């Protein structure tokens, strides 16, 4: 595990360890990580069981349960170590970005309802790119204006801009936990899609903050920023699509399935992880890459593998993602009570609270400033009233994207600490404020979201209709038996073979989808496989009854 | 990843990195691990694809392919860095014992043919405990006698005994790769089972070497060693069985399946890993623990979960194990060309070769010295001629257990290096000799094993018959539909309800199995679930045709 072991913690474990060392061979450095891993795995088991027991509760979600269990463990460790240490592993960016985030985002891409996602593509891009930039500007400007009143040491302009980036990073992981793809597909695809695109924007802005001379911003800088974003977005997406297509081609060409389900699953896992790591290697947006890799894999690769590989990948990816999500919230909860940082920030107890309040306010305002205007803009672009975003939905989009999570924590650590220690008091206070914002927004905003959706959108709990081509669909497995139907089923109305150019003007996304299907059928599927193009021998003709094997 | 990054490697990557750093935000220490992980994941993909293409080859196995690819990569890195460094990550015991070994051994326990394993339990214990001790004594004594001729610096008696332990550690991972459970079930269960028990023996011997005063060994020391072994064996087994039963009980009591396949799979993964980590925490044999945890989970827990969880766990565990195995061989191959160790040992080029030859000879003799006598003893104990071990089988058992792998490497590093560096020349020479033995035994002995089995046991390629209760069985899923049959099908002859005590004398293992089944049905299954005790709604009555969903 990439997380470094807190040396003070190891000291606290002294009595137990010396007992253990007396018992047998003692390799000290190994053993402290054994202690930490054992504790974390135990807590993960506890989170799953307790989260399951609390599932019926309308206020709690799994993430909040994990966060609270993490906090309680922090308190217990704090008491055991007589107030010296509350955490067992220091928060590690490497652990978070290299091991925990990729499976979560990949699984989101793999299980996302592709039609829903691509139909709202323009709105998602608006929110993710323009919206993030608006939010970043407002938070940065607000921090610059309001922080001066707190007298918390010298902040440079770069720090303020970094604060803007940190608190504009929507937490995709929180979104996945709070919004349900089946109950509110539109909101899910908008808020989650925004979170994915947001990552590319954040990288561009973060780089800009570090590289550009920001004291005089003119047209060319803005153009350069925009060019950077387009470059990053296109290369990251292309890398993800390329990795997905390569995996589809390898599995189709070599036809692993004849021999081994395990090899197919291994290739899918490794190729998707490779796409993320390559993106990180070339300083692209790994989140965008692995998200698109997941989408391509669910469209092509998933249909080339054996039936048992399909079931295995669907559930194994979801399980990995679930464990990683739980781990992150547990970790953030445990890390929140890091006593050293709080001691550093202690000399001004009111300041940290005030600062957190200001930041929360800025987040609220910054998000409102783009969700409502951009939703209006998006509604103007759309001709069909069905796909417009109502005011209540806008409100939920605003609210559901307010949570800040592990991504904000990781960015804050990156900006305000070097090697995990917070030496300067102004940096310590920024870290503690970030932790407060993350805890408050996740617990309070998170708890309110579920009841809020039920209150504002009571009709939303109908199941999605257009999910035939996704691994997440109960029907996905057996559709190939029904032939490669061309019926385009969007919003409940069957659109059969649109025959005139008028279509394009009336409903551009339908037309794009139609031509994409033609291209897909003519060139992509013969090459990369996918639904209906691989010799598929149904295991049992009565297999349609197997639906409950797919119940999640 | 626990592996530490080799600093010299990072220096070699200079030009590429500085190019990357210029491109964007540069967090140096993170980035070198990104480079290493990307390379490893790429190589893993290459191993799977190339291993698949070479599958028909009678000489190659996946492990040898991975080893050779690792060696080639080592050479390429060596050339790129102008002879300064050949490996990207130092061999890390933590990575090996904490992350790679548990999934492999757990999967072996999960997929093992339980009846075959427990029928040969006495023989396995003889091989694993007595056999390892005999081999250890012979290798230690041989090293003590023969090493003096080489003039390689001062070795203490503890070092010689450690050499005995290191080269008596059968490599379970190699066994899994070379022997096929379906083709040679008896040999597989004997050699692999021996490898699992061998781990407990090795820990006892290793502790004894470090803690006991070995200059005068008398009856009480031997008794103490024996007591230690029994304690370690029983506690480790009990911990594994306890963890398995707890997982079965949790899943049965809470009945996760109603809600989420992912949670069930997560609980199974986490509980099995927890059992391993707890064993490591209390200095027990994690390998024994997680092996028995796998057996109990496949007997109880696996039958309590949903149908899709069963398929997912079966394949996901196999995939994790497959990736970990491939990673280990790749890693050993890359580490073999560690130029620093070879430089240290260079001043006497013939010594290292001679030493490796002596060690290989001792391994051959040490293994022969227990396989043939103990097989004879085991044959005397058995009354039915069917289950006796023929001479050809004994020969294959002797040969298939000769390979030394990552376990030997890890033990050698633990004994002869501190913090991964080999300062003393006599230690460096021991490390290079161990690497040579591992490479030679895996590649040469491993390549010969497959053809050897075909030559000596041509009738062995019939599929196993008695695999109805295992996850590895194509029939396992649908057996519950046929009711909880009591027919005990062993060796092809149906033994229906043995009714007299004469049975016990004639065929003790049959009788033990009969009473175990009665106990299992009366007390264990009602409590912990298992085959036939969980409300199971068959998804399709024609489901028996679904067999190919289980083809591995």
UniProtKB/TrEMBL annotation, chains A, B:
Membrane-related topology note: Multi-pass membrane protein
Entry keywords, A to Z: Antiport, Ion transport, Membrane, Sodium, Sodium transport, Transmembrane, Transmembrane helix, Transport
Keyword Kinase: no
Major subcellular site: membrane
Cellular localization per UniProt: Membrane
Residue ranges constituting the Cation/H+ exchanger transmembrane domain according to the UniProt record: 43-453
Transmembrane segments: 33-54, 66-83, 95-112, 124-148, 229-251, 285-303, 315-334, 354-374, 395-416, 428-448
Single GO MF annotation: sodium:proton antiporter activity
Top-level division of the source organism's lineage: Eukaryota
GO cellular component: plasma membrane
Catalytic activity: K(+)(in) + H(+)(out) = K(+)(out) + H(+)(in); Na(+)(in) + H(+)(out) = Na(+)(out) + H(+)(in)
Database matches in InterPro entries: Cation/H_exchanger_CPA1, Cation/H_exchanger_TM, NaH_exchanger
Gene Ontology biological-process entries: regulation of intracellular pH; sodium ion import across plasma membrane
Family note: Belongs to the monovalent cation:proton antiporter 1 (CPA1) transporter (TC 2.A.36) family.
Protein's UniProt name: Sodium/hydrogen exchanger
Originating organism: Picea sitchensis (Sitka spruce)
């Amino acid at each position: 595990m990439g997380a470094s072991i807190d040396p003070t913690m190891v000291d606290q474990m002294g009595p137990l360890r010396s007992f253990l060392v007396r018992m047998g061979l003692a390799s000290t450095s190994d053993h402290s990580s054994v202690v930490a891993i054992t504790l974390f795995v135990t807590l993960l088991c506890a989170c799953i069981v307790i989260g399951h027991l609390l599932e019926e509760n309308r206020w709690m979600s799994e993430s909040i349960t994990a966060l609270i269990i993490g906090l309680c463990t922090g308190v217990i460790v704090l008491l055991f170590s007589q107030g010296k240490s509350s955490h067992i592993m220091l928060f590690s960016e490497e652990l978070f970005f290299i091991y925990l985030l990729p499976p979560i985002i990949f699984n989101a891409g793999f299980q996302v309802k592709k039609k829903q996602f691509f139909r709202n593509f323009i709105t998602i891009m608006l929110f993710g790119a323009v919206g993030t930039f608006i939010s970043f500007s407002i938070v940065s400007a607000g921090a610059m204006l309001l922080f001066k009143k707190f007298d918390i040491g010298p902040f440079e302009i770069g720090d303020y801009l970094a604060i803007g980036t940190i608190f504009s990073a929507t937490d995709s992981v929180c979104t996945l936990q709070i919004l349900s793809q089946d109950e509110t597909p539109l909101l899910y695809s908008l808020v989650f899609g925004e979170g994915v695109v947001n990552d590319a924007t954040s990288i561009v802005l973060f780089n800009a903050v570090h590289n550009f001379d920001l004291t005089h911003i003119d047209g060319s800088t803005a153009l350069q920023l925009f060019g950077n974003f387009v470059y990053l977005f296109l290369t990251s997406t292309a890398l993800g699509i390329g990795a997905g297509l390569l995996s589809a081609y390898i599995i189709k060409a070599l036809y692993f399935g004849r021999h081994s389900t395990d090899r197919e699953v291994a290739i899918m896992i490794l190729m998707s992880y490779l796409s993320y790591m390559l993106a990180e290697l070339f300083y692209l947006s790994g989140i965008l890459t692995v998200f698109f890799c997941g989408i391509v894999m669910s469209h092509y690769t998933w249909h080339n593998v054996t039936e048992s590989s399909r079931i295995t990948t669907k559930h194994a990816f979801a399980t990995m993602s679930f464990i990683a999500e739980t781990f992150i919230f547990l970790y953030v909860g445990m890390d929140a009570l890091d006593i050293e940082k709080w001691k550093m920030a202690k000399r001004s107890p009111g300041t940290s609270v005030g600062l957190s309040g200001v930041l929360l306010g800025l987040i609220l305002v910054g998000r409102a400033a783009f969700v409502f205007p951009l939703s209006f803009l998006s509604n103007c672009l759309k001709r069909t009233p069905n796909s417009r975003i109502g005011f209540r939905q806008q409100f939920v989009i605003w609210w559901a994207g307010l949570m800040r999570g592990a991504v904000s924590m990781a960015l804050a650590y990156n900006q305000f600490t070097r090697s995990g220690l917070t030496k300067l008091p102004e940096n310590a206070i920024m870290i503690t404020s970030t932790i407060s914002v993350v805890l408050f927004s996740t617990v309070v905003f998170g708890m309110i979201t579920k009841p809020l959706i039920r209150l504002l959108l009571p009709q939303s709990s109908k199941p999605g209709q257009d999910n035939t081509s996704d691994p997440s669909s109960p029907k996905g497995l057996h559709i190939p038996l029904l032939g490669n139907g061309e019926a385009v089923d969007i919003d409940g109305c069957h659109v059969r073979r649109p025959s005139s150019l008028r279509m394009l003007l009336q409903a551009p996304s339908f037309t794009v989808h139609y031509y994409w299907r033609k291209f897909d059928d003519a060139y992509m599927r013969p090459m990369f496989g996918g639904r209906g193009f691989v010799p598929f021998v149904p295991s049992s003709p009565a297999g349609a009854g197997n639906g409950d094997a797919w119940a999640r």
